[in-house]
Write a structure and sequence with these properties.
Blueprint lengths: L12 E6 L15 H16 L1 E6 L10 H5 L3 H25 L4 E5 L8 E2 L2 H10 L2 E5 L9 H11 L4 E6 L4 E2 L11 E2 L1 E3 H7 L6 H9 L4 E5 L5 H7 L5 E4 L3
Parallel strand pairs: 1-2, 1-6, 2-5, 3-4, 3-5, 6-10, 9-11
Antiparallel strand pairs: 7-8, 10-11
């Protein structure tokens, strides 16, 4: 595939939501940056023609709703630990990007001035003006909010044209394709229909906020070869969730 993004309708500001599992090996547990390193050349190409923001999960370190419960800690504290995990992933990603000559700005919803700047309109605009990739860490700073919802919020803050949810499934289906081989994959689907279907691949609150603010969400498998470049070049790649069906 060509490394030149030529799709005339390609959005110019993108918020990527990626999973912290990209920092693990095939077993989903062992620390391994192979998958992240494989994404960086694609990010380098994408950043030449797009303003890029990234929200990364922290599940490779800690999942507040799961491990927090197992440890018996207060749920809100578990969520705070999970938000700190996203900040650690952001710091690692920033370093890996720098090793490949890509500049980025790490912004944090949790005050941590020796690691990243606080998230505010001025910091976002300055990073966009410099052409930096923006890494959003620390979740929203508040518990009980999913990474999906955080991604939509950050997309709105950076005035993104689309949010790209990079996941391990290749789109939105009518039913769970693992349970029903006749499941239909949608190339496009409206927010209203996605909400009615209670699709499990994206948080309902994220969909509602995106719908209210007319922010399209593209969902696709990050495991596909050159997935980020294909999302920029191919309008039918994955599933586009928007106000139009």
């Amino acid at each position: 595939m060509s490394s030149n993004i030529v799709c005339p309708s390609a959005p110019k500001r993108i918020l990527l939501k990626i999973t912290g599992k990209l920092f693990t090996g095939p077993d989903g547990k062992t620390a391994d940056a192979t998958a992240v390193r494989a994404l960086i050349p694609q990010l380098a190409v994408l950043a030449k023609s797009h303003c890029v923001g990234i929200v990364i999960g922290g599940g490779n370190f800690f999942r507040g709703s799961q491990q927090g419960t197992a440890l018996g800690i207060t749920p809100s504290v578990g969520h705070q630990v999970g938000m700190l995990a996203t900040l650690m992933n952001g710091l690692m990603l920033q370093d890996l990007l720098a090793q490949q000559g890509l500049t980025s700005t790490l912004l944090s919803a949790l005050p941590c001035p020796t690691v990243g700047h606080c998230i505010c309109p001025q910091a976002i605009n300055q990073a966009l003006t410099r052409g930096d990739i923006i890494l959003f860490g620390g979740g929203t700073g508040a518990p009980y909010v999913t990474t999906d919802t955080n991604a939509v919020i950050r997309g709105l803050q950076m005035d993104a044209d689309q949010v790209w949810k990079c996941t391990d499934v290749d789109g939105v289906y009518s039913v769970d394709p693992k349970k029903n081989p006749l499941a239909e994959r949608f190339a496009t689907i409206s927010y209203e229909k996605a909400l009615a279907l209670h699709v499990g691949v994206i948080d309902q609150t994220a969909l509602i906020i995106a719908q209210q603010n007319d922010l399209p969400i593209r969902l696709f498998s990050i495991q596909e070869p050159e997935a980020l470049l294909r999302a920029a070049q191919e309008p039918q790649f994955g599933t586009l969730i928007s106000n139009q069906e």
